[in-house]
Write a structure and sequence with these properties.
alpha+beta, 116 residues, two-stranded antiparallel ribbon
């Protein structure tokens, strides 16, 4: 049993032999330079939006009870027909910072809409 443990420990030491050698300052500087000059990994291509989606930018819209309007964040809407768009659930923000959830649903185009 002791002999097996000693052989295992010796084998591990042999495997680590290269890592146990001290490095000189010149070697350390070379390793740092090489690692800093390595090219960065490439970024995967951006996901192309579906052709039936439309980006609606941030906007302020009037709502009953909020005469100054509420902020509607930018979001993607899916076009179902010329007059119908599927709008995702939105989080609206009124000027004092109060947030309100607005349910998803079918709505008219954003430029013709009076609300979120």
């Amino acid at each position: 049993m002791r002999r097996g443990a000693a052989l295992l420990a010796g084998g591990l030491l042999v495997l680590q032999g290269g890592a146990a050698q001290p490095t000189t300052p010149a070697q350390a500087a070379r390793q740092i330079t090489e690692s800093s000059m390595r090219p960065l990994p490439s970024v995967p291509p951006r996901e192309v939006p579906r052709p039936d989606t439309v980006w609606v930018p941030d906007r302020w819209v009037p709502l009953p009870g909020a005469p100054q309007g509420v902020h509607v964040p930018g979001h993607w809407e899916r076009r179902l027909s010329e007059r119908e768009y599927w709008v995702p659930p939105l989080t609206l923000t009124a000027p004092p910072g109060v947030q309100q959830a607005w349910p998803a649903g079918l709505r008219e185009p954003a430029e013709e809409r009076r609300g979120p």
